Amino acid sequence: MAATPSNQEVFILGKTQEGKTFRPSDWSERLAGVMSSFRPGGSGGHRLGAHLSYSPWCVPTVIDGVKCVVVNTALREHEPMAWAFVMDFARDNHLQTVEACLIPDPPPARA
């Protein structure tokens, strides 16, 4: 899947094209863990503690009860092989993908 320029993220959903839940249940954390060293400014593998956090370009989350991985399109420009890897993962496992732009929740209102 090639993301269009107007979208900033591709959501890889934990649902197959047939609508079945993808297994294993921790697939999103595993995929994001593999991608954790790909981050802005180069590989995070040389920074203290970098191995303990996900890349901001590949983040596991849950949306409407469905596990997914949000992949920022900046990964495509900075690490083309890593982009190909995650997109191939989605395609090879027949996972649904959605182009979108993640909008953060607004800050809580002050009392």
From TrEMBL:
Entry protein name: DUF3579 domain-containing protein
Domain of life: Bacteria
Pfam families for the chain: DUF3579 (PF12112)
InterPro entries from the UniProt entry: DUF3579
